[in-house]
Fold ATP phosphoribosyltransferase.
Amino acid sequence: MSKVQGRLRIAVQKSGRLAERSLDLVRDAGLRVMKGANDLLYRVENYPIDLLRVRDDDIPTFVADGVCDLGVVGENVLEEARNGGPQAEILMPLGFGKCTLKVATPPSLDYAGPASLEDRRIATSYPRILKRWLESRGVSADIVTMRGAVEVAPRLKLAHAICDLVSTGATLEANGLIAQETVFDSQAVLIRSPQAPEPELQHLLDSIIERMSGVVASQG
Ligand code: PRP
Ligand code: ZN
Ligand code: MG
């Protein structure tokens, strides 16, 4: 995707847990967002800025590659995307989208700590984070990667345990699963590209970051 010259780009989640609050942040920072004919791109009326509305999983790459100058994304998604290449820089936590990646088990599994996961199958949408956590606990287990509906995996006998995001806990509860371990604490963060913007946009970028940090501080 090539960049429109003379405009900054901010990546936000199109739909899902962070979508609405991400737009609020942008608006509270004084950007007048115009829903365009194009669902992927919203234009900002009062500044040369576009919002790119994408899947959250795509945001770390877009920002790391400089396709977008800023992004709003869950730290969990950012952490999962870490791959040793150039990375987006976390500018600040945003105070919303709080959730925790947890290992949870069905009552049928007699859980007495990470060692109980040895040689078990664990379903997750966060294989890299889970792998690092298992390694840090000296546990070797099979990771089954699922894009969604992770919570049904134990019932379908696809896995012995899961590692999934927990916010209210309603999903675990509804599926009879018990939270056992906290693997990663997450919230929405503002990230910046390691690639500098066009020189004439640097000042605008700095001032948008400043305004956003003012919005976050005022909500402290
Ligand atoms: C996460 C997770 C659970 C749910 C947990 O899904 O996969 O389904 O949230 O939240 P709760 O503790 O409040 O019930 P999410 O909505 O992020 O999206 P996805 O599963 O569709 O990717
Ligand atoms: Zn996602
Ligand atoms: Mg879900």
